[in-house]
Design goal:
about 10% strand; TIM Barrel; binds 6-(5-methyl-2-OXO-imidazolidin-4-yl)-hexanoic acid; binds S-adenosylmethionine; about 375 residues; binds iron/sulfur cluster; alpha/beta; globular
């Protein structure tokens, strides 16, 4: 019997092509994915997602701003830039004990990774020892560690890796073409160099961008193409929806259609099949339905806790309720131990971290029941 005119291609035909890990996606291919009929796109993203991940597990990170505001860079989206008047309470580098206290609270609330961010162009030598001590103290709590401190050179990256830093976050933010409209104080090349230093030092790379800054569909495709060219792909890919902060040059930019945002998440999932894709900033302004679609599109990481760096994030109870409603559970370090560790030392270290996490969680009011622990 002939197939109906609009019958989709059989799933098994698309599956093999869907599962390949590639770095050479052309702009035209990425634009074509972004423009697929929505249901086809989400189906393909789910196929990829289910091949590599538990589809109901979400990695949970908590953010802390360890140095706030007065940044010399001019990123047009950022409330922390010293170039704009955003009514922000500036703060110098936090004391180590304060950071450790916040990390414990995040762990006890169910986070498995603690991300520390500083409003710097790049870290100064006099702050570096303090920052490294923060890494080792937070890590000793059984948390994965992540930092975002601006540009780092290869020596700084090696020192952070030596202190035990697991992830370094440095975003490409947008396409090479649109970049100059958003930031003039550092180049796209500077960003790629920092990412190369992080990779060379052996840390995991966290890199993504911001959507909704007035960019074109082609810019979104070009951002994804830049991320996909990184070899290996970043382990973590934050996709931020612009949080429009009064006083920044982008405060009045037109809202991005949530469906366009979900499409970008689905394409990130297809292009970087083994990476965690983070539904990052902007959840406070998003409906639950949009967030649910993002998880369906393959997002499997969030920031958890009532603050991002300087702006609001959903209250923890709201996220617990959303996880319950959707049947999601937090992904735990120990689940990935089996998948990513091959040598004994790595297995032991990770298991120790996971045990610390588990015992703290049994004491605490956890984010949600975790079926992977049962
Ligand atoms: N100063 C460091 C840097 O820029 O690399 C680290 C902190 S910076 C705030 C980290 C990232 O937060 C930026 O690269 C950007 O992608 C994201 N970000 C900042 N302001 C944002 C906003 N208003 N909405 C969405 N994402 C934002
Ligand atoms: C990322 O991609 N998003 C986070 C984290 N990496 C550091 C930061 C979002 C910041 C949103 C604006 C604010 O709270 O200041
Ligand atoms: Fe500074 Fe980072 Fe904000 Fe840019 S994004 S102004 S570098 S804190």
């Amino acid at each position: 019997m002939p197939s109906a005119p609009n019958a989709p291609s059989p799933p098994e035909q698309t599956l093999a092509g869907n599962l390949e890990v590639r770095h050479d996606w052309s702009l035209a291919e990425i634009e074509a994915l972004l423009a697929l009929p929505f249901n086809d796109l989400l189906f393909r993203a789910q196929q990829v997602h289910r091949t590599h991940f538990d589809p109901n597990a979400v990695q949970v990170s908590t953010l802390l701003s360890i140095k706030t505001g007065a940044c010399p860079e001019d990123c047009k989206y950022c409330p922390q830039s010293g170039h704009y008047n955003t009514d922000l309470d500036k703060e110098k580098l936090l004391e180590i004990e304060k950071v450790v206290e916040q990390a414990k609270a995040a762990r006890d609330a169910g986070a498995s990774r603690f991300c520390m961010g500083a409003a710097w162009r790049s870290p100064r030598e006099k702050d570096f020892e303090v920052v490294m001590e923060m890494v080792s103290r937070v890590k000793s709590l059984g948390l994965e560690t992540c930092m975002t401190l601006g540009m780092v050179d290869s020596d700084q990256a090696k020192r952070l890796a030596g202190a035990g830093l697991d992830y370094y976050n440095h975003n490409l933010d947008t396409s090479p073409d649109y970049y100059g409209e958003i930031i003039t104080t550092r180049t796209y090349g500077d960003r790629l160099e920092t990412l190369a230093s992080v990779r060379e030092a052996g840390m995991k790379v966290c890199s993504g961008g911001i959507l909704g800054m007035g960019e074109t569909p082609r810019d979104r495709a070009a951002l994804l193409q830049q991320l996909v060219r990184l070899e290996p792909h970043p382990e973590s890919v934050p996709i931020n929806m612009l949080v429009k902060v009064p006083g920044t040059p982008l405060e009045d930019v037109e809202d991005l259609d949530p469906i366009v945002f979900i499409r970008a998440i689905a394409v990130a999932r297809i292009l970087m099949p083994k990476s965690h894709v983070r539904l990052s900033a902007g959840r406070e302004q998003m409906s639950e339905s949009t967030q649910a679609l993002a998880f369906l599109a393959g997002a499997n990481s969030i920031f958890y806790g009532e603050r991002l760096l300087t702006t609001a994030n959903p209250q923890a109870e709201r996220d617990r309720a959303l996880f319950d409603k959707l049947g999601l559970h937090p992904e735990h370090v120990e689940k990935r131990v089996r998948e990513t560790c091959t040598d004994d030392t790595c297995q032991r270290e990770n298991l120790e971290a996971a045990m610390a996490l588990k015992s703290s969680q049994s004491r605490a009011d956890t984010l949600a029941y975790d079926a992977t622990l049962a």
